[in-house]
Amino acid sequence: MPESSDQLQRALLDLGESGCQGNSQDYRVWVQLFHDVEATPAEVEKALAALEQGGRMRRHADFPNEYLLADGPRFGNSVEYQVSGTLEHAPIQMVRSRLESFLRSHAAHESDIIDISIATTEAMENAVKYSDHKEITVGYGIEDGKFSIRIVNRIGETELESDIEQGKYTGSITLMRGMMVMVKLFDDVDIDISEDEGLAIFKATTELKV
User: Which member of 57, 85, 114, 179 lies 3.0 to 4.6 Å from 133 by CB, making a disulfide possible if both were Cys?
Assistant: First the structure.
């Protein structure tokens, strides 16, 4: 239980100001992970509703069960942060929503936002699937009309039979399909595997529409 509803609301607002968008379950996981605030789904939903009533957060027009900051966050030219490498912590939803908020704050064309979001989702799915399920570092920015992104994850130990059972390798179709999507939607894509450091580093750039 949070120490107070104010503490929970402050944590929710902080996430909203970073660009997060999600439902009450997403936010429940995130406030615990990033703010060490324990709350039930009902408490989170109540706090989100109170922030909505106060005009500080709003429901997404197309996804009414998801909340985001009412006025929209503001960003500098670049951001970097860490997310969990565990699917239960909704890292892909966090990165996707924060990325889209960042691009909209820089008045990116909607078609660019869609393309970059789809390609980044593919990159994040690979980062989570093939990581050690700990922290993943995500950084992106805009300079001179060009968007760039960098995703770094530690490489998990490969256990082929277990990985096949989990669907990681389905005749390499999943990985190759993801790469094809990323190569199509970004102008340049590079994946560097550093075995000495145990890191996978994904980098991509694309020119934004004027």
Answer: 85
End-to-end distance of the chain based on CA atoms, in angstroms?
48
Overall pTM surpassing 0.85 (yes/no): yes
For the chain, which domains are there?
1-73 (1.10.10.10), 74-210 (3.30.565.10)
pLDDT in tens, 135-175: 999 999 999 999 999 999 988 655 434 444 544 444 344 45
Q: Are 68 and 61 in contact (CB under 8 A)?
A: no
Residue 132 vs residues 84, 135, 157: alpha-carbon distances, Å: 10, 8, 7
Q: Residue 158 gets which letter from DSSP?
A: P
Which residue is listed with tokens 């001179």? 144
Entry field: residues in the chain: 210
